[in-house]
Amino acid sequence: MAPYESDDSTGADEVDDLRPGRRRAARYVVPVAVVGVAAATIGLVPALADSGDPSLPKITAQQLIEKIAKSDVQQLSGTVRINTDLGLPNLGGLQNSLMSGAAKGGDGSSADATSKLTELASGTHTLRVAADGQDRQKVSIIENAAEYSLIHNGKDVWGYDSKSNEVYHGTAAEDGAKHRDEASGTPKDFADEALKSVDDTTSVTVDGTAQVAGRDAYKLAIKPKHASGTTVGVISIAVDAKTGLPLKFTLTPASGGAAVLDAGFTQISFAKPAASTFDFTPPKGAKVTEQKDSKATERHSVKPGAGASGKGLAEKGPKVIGKGWNSIAVFDSGSKGGIPSSSGKGDLSGFLGSLGDHVSGKFGKGTVFSTRLVNALMTDDGKVYVGAVTKSALVNAANAGQ
Predict the structure, then answer these.
(1) What distances in angstroms separate CA 103 from CA 55, 109, 129, one per listed residue?
(2) Which residues contact 204 (CB under 8 A, 6 or more apart)?
(3) Which of 51, 208, 270, 389 ranks highest by number of CB atoms within 10 Å?
(4) pLDDT category, 186, cuts 50, 70, 90?
(5) Residue 183 has what pLDDT?
(6) Which of 164, 135, 129, 173 is nearest to 150 (CA)?
(7) How far apart are CA 342 and CA 207, in angstroms?
(8) Which CA distances in Å does 203 have to 196, 198, 206, 293?
């Protein structure tokens, strides 16, 4: 075993007891954009290397999980680097066009946090973060000659896109929690989701130590006990030895190579940020969009994946089949022929179809879109199978008529 590794009884079984209310569907988060897997391109620079191998007191996986759970860091500021490499093809101008279309969600402003989701899901990004309790947080995405900031200060939530000089304004009572969730991108956010997925199919161990952003940390390793069928290799979480705050999150696929997701602090301070950090006044000449009534927005919004019947994926929701790391979400798109299908018509349908692998079986015909982590099978009868599983696992599920 590694110097700080615990046995199975201290890892998976005990950690499992900490999550009595977990749901199998928490294994992964599958955005609707995965269905159109060719809609994004990934560019990745090598992940920043950590340095050092500090000597720390021995700790079990159970104790480290409890340390994370008890962590109550209220004040911090720092820089987070996020690298994402799903292995999608470079689609050039098509990517920009589709990204721009996605940015029209939310309340229609490029400064609405919804418009930044697809950007954080690909490539390399630098975030500056700051927090002072529950009422003041700030996340800034640093871009080339531009910056996007999301600021929660008391009852106000501000989004500002310097590139378009647009401002989005909402109120914390109705809007703050929503946008704080949408802007998630810190190692703690990813770690929280990973820990929800722990069950009896999971091995949880302490895998040595590391130094991240100048801080001594333990490394928690989460991986499937049986790798057959899943595309997940190992999830590594670097946990600050003093505060219990996750400092770095790395997800490596079963196929090996570069991490699919690598998010970590490159600099962090636990000092109280200056109050002015959270001050915001719309710049002169900026276009300001006020938060719309949520019910009105819902009434006039188009559900992603809606077919001729008007009942789309978001409305019907998925059912989850399989167990643990082999879980598969199944959607009914409500559209015969699939989009794209193996016999798709039209330039876009044919182009997207060419990016997938055409498959057939007892279920009929379909197209599999593969990434290094999440794969999706779209059948010609309108069903969609999505999961962090292999192509053969998706085909087997479709053949079983699940």
Answers:
(1) 46, 8, 22
(2) 6, 11, 12, 15, 61, 65, 198, 220, 221, 222
(3) 389
(4) confident
(5) 46
(6) 129
(7) 45
(8) 14, 8, 10, 45
Q: What pLDDT score was predicted for residue 313?
A: 40
Question: Residue 87 in contact with residue 42, Cβ under 8 Å?
Answer: yes
In a domain, 302, yes or no: no
- What integer is the mean pLDDT of 244-254? 96
The residues pairing with 261 across neighbouring beta strands, listed in sequence order, are 84, 251
The predicted structure's pLDDT at residue 132 = 97
Residues 277 and 329 in one domain: no
Structure token digits, residue 14: 């005990």
* Res 310 pLDDT > 60: no
Cis peptide before 3 (omega within 30 of 0): no
DSSP assignment of 284-342 equals TT-EEEEPPPHHHHHHHPPPTT--TTS--HHHH--EEES-GGG-EEEEE-S-TT-SS-T
Site of tokens 């590594």: 236
**Residue ranges making up the domain that contains 363:** 313-399
Read off the pTM: 0.74
Q: What residue type is 273 in one-letter code?
A: P
Per the structure block, which two tokens stand in for 132? 């002072």
Amino acid at 160: Y
Give the list of residues 6+ apart from residue 255 with CB closer than 8 angstroms, or none. Answer: 231, 233, 372
In a domain, 6, yes or no: no
- Residues with Cβ within 8 Å of residue 379, at least 6 apart in sequence: 338, 363, 364, 365, 366, 385, 398
- CATH number of the domain to which 57 belongs: 2.50.20.10
326 and 266 housed in the same domain: no
**Domain termination site, one of 268, 295, 322:** 295
Tokens, residue 61? 């996986």
Residue from 209, 188, 173, 41 nearest 127 by CA: 188
